[in-house]
């Protein structure tokens, strides 16, 4: 049994990093966060996503045809659905609790590396690569990868979030 499979069998608790200000994340630069919780997408969730986006490619929706024609004999989770899950999973990794409001600024270098099927367990692995005070905001860059229990990367990406002072309100990331 691989390390990832052992962790999947008895998942560890992922501790949420809380900081009062985004600039405090600089103390955690170039360190891997604890892996995120295991997550799996169901066919029903795929069908709802497809209905919302209009991407009706049969490889995502036609279970019977996938069983006959696709390797693995299952439908494939849309890559855009996987990418859409990353922000929420990253919010489970760290949180800025002060009066700064976080916004996604860019998502770069997205690569879909391996097909994911309904029911396949995956999790987020993240690492901060830049925390920089800029005029009026703090920029926080992170590498965000999704991996299967086997350790196989299914999605790799880089994202930049900006945290701006929010006048008089406390907003969590």
What does this structure look like?
By secondary structure, the protein is an alpha+beta fold. It has one domain: Hotdog Thioesterase (Thiol Ester Dehydrase, Chain A), CATH 3.10.129.10. It contains five helices and six strands, in the order αβααααβββββ. The strands form two sheets. It has a four-stranded antiparallel beta sheet with strand order 3-6-5-4. Strands 1-2 form a two-stranded parallel sheet. Strand 5 and strand 6 form a beta hairpin. The longest helix is centred in the middle third of the chain and has 13 residues. The protein is elongated. The N terminus and C terminus are likely disordered.
Could you outline the blueprint of secondary structure elements for this entry?
Elements: H1 3-9, E1 17-19, H2 43-53, H3 58-61, H4 63-69, H5 79-91, E2 94-96, E3 100-112, E4 122-134, E5 137-148, E6 153-165
Parallel strand pairs: 1-2
Antiparallel strand pairs: 3-6, 4-5, 5-6
